Amino acid sequence: MAVRGLLLYSAFALAFVGIGVLSYDRPTARGSYFVSLPETFDSTSPQQVHISLVGNDKMRISWITEDQTPSTVQYGTSPGKYESSATGNSSSYKYLLYKSGEIHDVVIGPLKPNTVYYYLCGVGSAPEYSFKTPPAQFPINFAVVGDLGQTEWTNSTLQHMAKSNYDMLLLPGDLSYADTVQSLWDSFGRMVEPLASQMPWMVTQGNHEVEKIPIIHSHSFTSYNARWHMPFEESGSGSNLFYSFEVAGVHVIMLGSYTDFDPSSAQYKWLQSDLQKVDRVKTPWLVVLIHAPWYNSNTAHQGERESIDMKAAMEELLYEARVDLVFAGHVHAYERFARVYKEQANNCGPVHITIGDGGNREGLANDYIDPQPKISVFREASFGHGQFEVVNATYARWAWHRNDDNESVMADSVWLTSLASDPT
Ligand SMILES: [Fe+2]
Fold first, then answer.
1. Residue 103: its pLDDT value, please?
2. SS3 243
3. What is the domain range of residue 193?
4. Rounded to the nearest whole angstrom, what is the distance from the C-alpha of residue 103 to the centroid of ligand 1?
5. Ligand 1 centre distance from Cα of residue 290 (Å)
């Protein structure tokens, strides 16, 4: 491992080019990282545990067992003491010759904010897991990363996020890169469990979640919807592919780039009504996540309808609502734009950020359009993750942490003012 690491890292170098301009010699893609089931596990052992926020004060606990077991979570605020329990349901799905394990779905709560809970997935099962509920008020600290995949770079990104005491992860699509090989969804679930069982993972879907094969498997998002149930019902959405939630004064909207988005679509109508419900006194910060970026000066993924047509359909809605930030993935690199609207810098438009640099097996998108557009403030093709730290109703700090020789290095940061506070 050490030798392999040395060989990999010997390719990295920092070099200064020009006067005071930092050029970064970027690392290459790393090998895939398949996480097998431990030998000690039996057919009723919980695996692939992850949690997501439901409403203000509840949490969805999801896990998989090979065989059917009761969908019951025991939980409490002290280790080993479980004063409360809740029972949900389980389901499974088929994909070609693959049949999933039992996917358990249990909502627990009401829970106190900013509190550590200990829980068991199943009655008297092991091991004990724990998570901390998000705060009810500012400050709140989000990790943001897309296009994770499951490589050694992904592992590096996950480890960096685990060290930083985040309250929640926001993921703008492309999770496992299973790409129809369903056992890779199971591997991904096992890989992310240490982090995803400790803090809520709020995700939306990317092109790698579609997994539709003409004639052979005609449904889209079969695995994604079965495994990553997000709280769409609570936000009045009829689809797991788009939803919203509120946490600590932030209204977060998750959109689906690979479902209909034209003005006659269910998603568009839901977005309109959701934006009308936003109360900027209660939630001064308004954030949107999509997968395919609407602003992008990388040469990768130019001209795709999910970017161009979705932007044409929905950009005005977001602008009129004074959305603060739009996070996207898809392009395997980092890019931060100024506040923009219709290709121009605009103080009332959202800041667009591409954060598709989680570490997937396809590697980085290294080539950029020259010259750099004026509205593109910072762009770099390296793996890493973002930190969105909302300090109060007015100020938040955005920072991008590059995976630098396995270290997490803050390479870009900016203070932002909410448009609810500064609607000029
Ligand atoms: Fe993608």
1. 98
2. strand
3. 140-417
4. 25
5. 10
**Domain CATH for 250:** 3.60.21.10
Tell me the CA–centroid distance for residue 207 and ligand 1, in Å: 5
Is 57 inside a domain boundary?
A: yes
Q: Supply the angle between the helices 305-320 and 266-277 in degrees, to the nearest 10.
A: 30
Confidence of residue 12 (pLDDT cuts 50, 70, 90): very low
Judge if 214 and 277 occupy the same domain.
yes
Predicted local confidence at residue 27, as pLDDT: 64
Q: If you measure from the C-alpha of residue 229 to the centroid of ligand 1, how many angstroms do you get, rounded to a whole number? A: 20
Domain end, chosen from 111, 132, 153, is at 132
244 and 219 assigned to the same domain:
yes
Catalytic residue among 301, 330, 385, 401: 301
**Other CB atoms within 10 A of residue 417 CB:** 12
The Å distance, Cα 289 to ligand 1 centre, comes to 13
Sheet holding 129-132, edge to edge: 84-87, 72-76, 116-121, 129-132
Other Cβ atoms less than 10 A from the Cβ of 194: the count is 13
Is 332 among the residues known to form the active site? no
Q: How confident is the model at residue 24 (pLDDT cuts 50, 70, 90)?
A: low
Domain endpoint, select from 114, 132, 150: 132
Is the distance from CB of 394 to CB of 383 less than 8 angstroms?
A: no
What does the pLDDT look like over 184-230, one tens digit per residue? 999 999 999 999 999 999 999 999 999 999 999 999 999 999 999 99
Q: Are residues 105 and 199 in the same domain?
A: no
My answer on whether 85 and 198 are in the same domain is no
Same domain, yes or no: 254 and 401: yes
Number of domains in the chain: 2
Give residue-wise pLDDT tens across range 41-81. Answer: 999 999 999 999 999 999 999 999 999 999 999 999 999 99
Distance 130 CA to ligand 1 centre (A): 31
Q: What is the pTM of this model?
A: 0.93
Q: Is residue 124 domain-shared with residue 177, that is, in the same domain?
A: no
What is the tens place of the pLDDT at every residue in 327-342? 999 999 999 999 999 9
> CB-side exposure of 243: number of CA atoms within 13 Å?
26
The answer to whether the CB of 75 falls within 8 A of the CB of 109 is no
Q: What is the pLDDT of residue 26?
A: 59
CA of 292 to the centre of ligand 1 (A): 7
